[in-house]
Amino acid sequence: MGITIKIPKEFSFKAGYRFLDRSDKECLHRVNEGKVYKLLLIDGELLLIQIEDSGDALTVNCINKKVNNAQTKAIKSYVIEWWDLDYYLKPFYRFCKKDKMLKKLSDDHHGLRMIGFPDLLECLVWAIIGQQINLNFAYIIKRRFVEKYGISIVHQGQSYFHFPDAESVSQLTVEALKELKFSRQKANYTLNVANAILHEGLNKNALKEMGYAEAKATLKNIKGVGDWTADYALMKCIRYPNAIPLGDVGLHNALKAQLKLEAKPSKVVLKQLAEKWAIHSGYVCFYLWSSLLNNN
DNA sequence: AGCCAGGTGTACA
DNA sequence: TGTACACATGGC
């Protein structure tokens, strides 16, 4: 039994699983023995889903409740969006064949889909937390934040958390966030994002419809969202295929390693690369990030 | 000890 | 437009 999701042609569950398994400090999903667990909030109900590979399909089960048809449909759309299953990857792979580094990356991670953020607030807050600090520390702060202000269930002795919504986040204070070791700036940025969503009509659909340039300008209008954060969200949540956080340190490190550069690539070089990658920039970036993982 | 981490806003010239 | 600086903490 369970929900069956047909998988696209270029797809590797293992590659996605490996990406999700990149940190044992992650608190918004769990991976264990080949299965992925995530707590969803659908129409006010907390649904714990379990995703597994069943060869020619993905099998998704809701393991804490019986779900109706509408919920089944919502779960299905969530997983498809989260794992970018509707994206047609073949053009990206065709593009990669022409370039030595991209050829290697696309071979190494064949079938890897860009695991994204269906939730805009979660994406932006995570990006803000991650600004200019090491990832481990970012995960620790996120965990404190989610455990304190998120919602959760316990299932078979395990806690599962869901990110808080814009309304609850907007009611927090800078001081409360500082206790979790947010910097004063980041605490303000976080509140700014929640307020933009709550009071200024910021949402995924609007950002999707206005086109890349306007969407980026709209995001950057929020104090605390700069080039990097805006492009991160446009890439991982709104999914503009050309969006790429060019200033990203991880991206620089990955390029340095892949291209065997003496130093990190310059701004000029980065811009040239992104122009060359064009609409494939997001996937190139995601594959480069994946090349940094050491959890094989 | 000091610099760098999945950056950004602000303060100056 | 461009550059210096603070920011929280942890790892090396």
Secondary-structure blueprint of this entry?
Layout: E1 3-6, H1 13-20, E2 30-32, E3 35-42, E4 45-53, E5 57-62, H2 69-82, H3 90-96, H4 100-108, H5 120-130, H6 135-149, E6 151-155, E7 158-162, H7 166-170, H8 174-179, H9 184-199, H10 204-209, H11 212-220, H12 227-236, H13 249-258, H14 267-277, H15 281-291
Antiparallel strand pairs: 1-5, 2-3, 3-4, 4-5, 6-7
Helix pairs in contact: 4-15, 5-9, 5-12, 11-12, 13-15
The structure holds a DNA duplex (13 and 12 nucleotides).
| Approximate strand percentage | 5-15%
Find the count of extended strands (DSSP E, 2+ residues).
Answer: 7
Distance between the termini: 31 Å
Mean pLDDT: 97
Listing every helix as H and every strand as E from the N terminus to the C terminus, the arrangement reads: EHEEEEHHHHHEEHHHHHHHHH
Point out poorly predicted stretches.
none
User: Which fold does the CATH topology of the domain at 120-236 refer to?
Assistant: Endonuclease III, domain 1
Q: Per CATH, which architecture of the domain at 120-236?
A: Orthogonal Bundle
- Biggest sheet statistics: 5 strands, antiparallel
Number of helical stretches of at least 4 residues: 15
> Based on CA inertia axes, which overall geometry fits?
globular
Which radius of gyration do the C-alpha atoms yield? 19 Å
- Helix/strand/pairing class, anyone? alpha+beta
Give, in spatial order, the strands making up the sheet with the most strands: 1-5-4-3-2
CATH class of the domain at 120-236: Mainly Alpha
Helical content stands at 40-55%
- The CATH superfamily label of the domain at 120-236 reads Hypothetical protein, domain 2
